[in-house]
Each structure stands twice: as structure tokens, then as C-alpha cells.
Amino acid sequence: MSERVSSRAALVGGLLLWFAVLGGALSWAVHSLAAWSIDELACEAGHDDLAGVPLVGAIALAVLLPAAGATAALVVSVLAWRRLRPEPREDGDRATGRAHLLAVVGLWLNLLALAMIVFGGVAALVLPPCQR
Fold this sequence. Notes:
Layout: H1 7-44, E1 49-50, E2 53-54, H2 55-83, H3 94-126
Antiparallel strand pairs: 1-2
Helix pairs in contact: 1-2, 1-3, 2-3
């Protein structure tokens, strides 16, 4: 028995699936651009703060916010993976199988992106800023 899905529900489901696949990678890109450029630009200007916020605090925000985005994408991909898991005796709908594969790919990509954000954050926070 097939259920009819409204076009709005299909759109939201499709966007969530794409967020589950690409959210971690986009968060990693934001982290890479923000954390290192904050450090480099503030130090190049000769400042130890960014608009009154200590440099370490600004870098920590540039690590924590993308890490939260990657974690959210990881949670969405896990939920999609669990929901789209094929039944053992089901012939299988090809669209559901593709969506399940995307959820699995998103799960692994988000784990990798989250690890890279954490490791990059540790490097950005442990290495002393503005080495002169």
C-alpha cells in the first residue's frame, strides 16, 4: 500500500536529506574560513581582540558554531538512516534505497567533518595566536 506524500512534505524531506549529506562539509568549510582567517587578520592588524572579544573567544566561536552545525547534520543523517532502513522482505523502492544510501554517505561525511572541525579547533586554540 503506497502512501501519497504532499509536495510540501517531499520538499522538506528532500531538503533535510541534502542537509544530512552536505551540512557537515559546509560547516567544515565555514570553520576553515572563519577560524583561521580571524586569527590571521587580527594578528596582521596587530590586535589581540576582535571587536572587543578576545581572539581566543572569537576563534572558539568559529569552532563551536560550525561544530554545532555538523552535529545537527549528523543527527539528521542518523535519523534519516534509521527511518529509511529497508525492510528485510521488502522488494525495495528504488527511491527509498537511494535516499538510504545518501543517509549513509551523509553519516560518514558528517563524522569526518566533525572530526576535522574538532582537530582544527584544537590546533587553532592550542597554537598561540599572533606568534611574533
